[in-house]
Design a protein that fits this description.
348 residues, alpha+beta, Endonuclease III, domain 1, Nucleoside Triphosphate Pyrophosphohydrolase, five-stranded mixed β-sheet, 9 strands, iron-sulfur
Length: 348
């Protein structure tokens, strides 16, 4: 048996029952692939079901407000995925009459769709022999063939794509691609895989060389920076607060948050009181303030760590137009803000 036959045979026995595996409808396959980027299936499945229930067709998703999409996405992170999801749905509905492109090349032209997603949709929905290459595939192929080329550099990306393309079953690319992804998720796991039950145990180079835990090779090239976020949680006597839309480009674009002071170092109480933004917002308004969390809440992203404090500012009247505290949960927010709203005891 060749590589593809072995892995698809394994898949026929061990595959999980997942809703997107019961369809070849491009909308559902696309939705599942976008949701599962950077997301485990156990976390992504409820989101997939929620999106399918609320937006059963690409037209429903296209007709939604972006804020509705972001709210439903809340908690998944990488919010650019949700914004691109909505933009692409709008384009497909309005410009392509709801019909997805059926080739890898044309799928790649859609916003938010890269090599992996285009390959998955083309193969699963349209039976095109386009090989998927993701973290699972890198891991399987690097271990099986003993490849030490770094996967996060151009040379490695090209090498693994070429190898994956050579291995795919051109007569059954959909099954092959789903099998190799499932094999990486369930058998050839990142840590402590059970190689004793692996169908490739007699031919895997990494197993023979005792280098399973060393592959794939990924070189560090992103320096992580630290940022210090200070959210100003205003509470007025008429139970209102300030909540603003984050309009500038970045990880949380178009999500809502409390007014933010971003600094290069942590703020203590004296530095907070002396802050120009605090002074400009309050502008001689009588207020009392307290610090919700003495210890920074650390939110770790791939390229930066956010050290966060929430400052509670009680005022008789807000310095600008606000919203009722009871409305906070209706806005799409990032996970830091969402958790705070859930945990803080706002006045009822």
């Amino acid at each position: 048996m060749n590589f593809s036959s072995i892995i698809t045979n394994w898949y026929s026995i061990h595959k999980r029952s997942l809703p997107w595996r019961n369809t070849k409808e491009p909308y559902y396959i696309w939705l599942s692939e976008i949701i599962l980027q950077q997301t485990q299936i156990t976390q992504g499945l409820p989101y997939y079901e929620a999106f399918v229930n609320k937006f059963p067709t690409v037209f429903d998703l296209a007709n939604a407000k972006e804020s509705e999409v972001l709210k439903l996405w809340q908690g998944l992170g990488y919010y650019s995925r949700a914004r691109n999801l909505h933009k692409t749905a709008t384009y497909i509905a309005n410009e392509l009459n709801g019909t997805f492109p059926d080739t890898y090349t044309d799928l790649l032209k859609l916003k938010g769709i890269g090599d992996y997603t285009a390959s998955a949709i083309a193969s699963i929905c349209f039976n095109k022999p386009t090989a998927v290459v993701d973290g699972n595939v890198y891991r399987i192929l690097s271990r099986y063939y003993g490849i030490e080329t770094p996967i996060n550099y151009t040379e490695g990306i090209k090498e693994f794509k070429k190898l994956a393309t050579a291995l795919i079953d051109k007569n059954n690319p959909a099954e092959h691609n789903q099998a190799i992804m499932e094999f990486g998720a369930r058998q050839c796991k990142p840590k402590n895989p059970d190689c004793s039950v692996c169908p490739f145990k007699n031919s895997c180079i990494a197993l023979q060389k005792n280098s399973i835990d060393k592959l794939p090779v990924k070189l560090k090239k992103t320096k992580v920076s630290n940022k210090y976020y200070n959210f100003l949680v205003f509470i007025s006597t008429d139970k209102k607060t300030l909540f603003e839309k984050r309009t500038y480009k970045g990880i949380w674009q178009n999500l809502y948050q409390f007014p933010l002071i971003e600094t290069k170092t942590p703020l203590n109480i004296d530095a907070f009181k002396a802050s120009a933004k605090v002074k400009s917002l309050l502008n001689d308004i009588s207020f009392e303030f307290s610090l919700y969390n003495e210890k920074d809440i650390v939110h770790k992203l791939s390229h930066q760590h956010l050290y966060t404090k929430f400052w509670i500012i009680e005022v008789d009247k807000l310095p600008s137009e606000g919203i009722s505290i009871s409305e906070l949960t209706t806005f799409p927010t990032n996970i830091l803000i969402s958790n705070f709203i859930d945990e803080f005891k706002f006045p009822i």
